[in-house]
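User: I'm writing a short report section on ligand binding and want a predicted complex to refer to. Could you take this sequence and alpha-D-glucopyranose and write out the structure as tokens? A short remark afterwards would be nice.
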Amino acid sequence: MSDLTSRAGAVLEAHWREPGFCVPHADVYPVRFLWDSAFHVVVWAALDRPERAHTELATIFATATPAGFVPHMGYHLDPEASVGFWGRRGASSITQPPMYGHAVAELTRAGIAVDPAVVDAARRGLLWLVDHRRQPDGTIAVVHPWETGMDDSPRWDGALGSERPWTAEAWRRRKGELVSALVTDGDGVAIDSSSFRVGSAGFTALVSFNLAELGWATHDRRLVDCAGELSLALGPLLDPRRGWRDGAGSGAGGGARTLDGLLPLLVVEPASSADGLLAQLVDRAAYGGPYGPAFVHRDEPAHDPAGYWRGSVWPQVTYLLWLAARRHGAGPVAEALATGLRRGALGSGLAEHWHADSGAALGAVPLSWAGLAAVV
Ligand code: GLC
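Assistant: Sure. The structure tokens for the complex follow:
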């Protein structure tokens, strides 16, 4: 464990940049990413580095718009670099799971005071999503697959096509086409899309979870109520054997069994169906593996154990499901997820993601968020 802690600390230290955040990876991801940074906050707090934790949390909001929208990428080191692709200076025009609500709650639990201006920015960011992206069925819409953070999940195959394996150029082109389809507001941020809009169950669950976390940390009734409304909207989307389907929308790929379809476990009330779904996380015939849960169910035609978002273990998703298992009192499942996460992170050299059965490193190495293995 101490080895993991010191390695996580060394990676975050090496990835620290001004004005106060960690790049996910020095070469592959040299900018700030919203949900990565929120996870780094959690890791900094576990490493007993409260100033770093607070600074990185504050930096997430440095590129927020006056209305509260929080972009998923911040180009602090080279603000002009975003203009060509996003049409905005310094930041992207889409968002990512608002994990900053959880980050505030984690700091609060650790006894670290959070600047009221940062709390206010977090509150406004979450309410922006509720006010601008809530659909008639109660789910929160994403308007680009990238907004989910799970960029090439089989759930988005209807929009992304089947050119896999992607060449870097084809991947960038397809994502760029989806950026061209965005409908933006006066601040240049995405409020809709002419070709992709999905009430993602996973994204809705993460918005609900973060509202609940921030609401708890700040005793804010409105946030807690909004969290409850989103959680209720997920109810009709549950298939007790397959997990949650996505809500209203167009342009995606349907209901492939993926781990984002189990993230509502973070917010729904404990029920017998939850036990069966939690068991799938550690069942080797479903998602389970010795190095953590595969992102795509092993029986899905799209399952590819080494593909990007097609069936490998992702440390931040495993961490979220560990939180969910604990919330449901599923101790053995939580322990198995924590063991897989630690084993996979250590064995892969803190990789971006890894193979569920061999633990072999995949993607960029080292990636800052793999430090979550030192938290569980
Ligand atoms: C990839 C991931 C995304 C993450 C980013 C930086 O784009 O799909 O979720 O935020 O890398 O780690």
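A remark for your report: Residues 24, 29, 33, 35-36, 149, 151 surround alpha-D-glucopyranose (CB under 6 Å). Residues 116-133 form the longest helix (18 residues).
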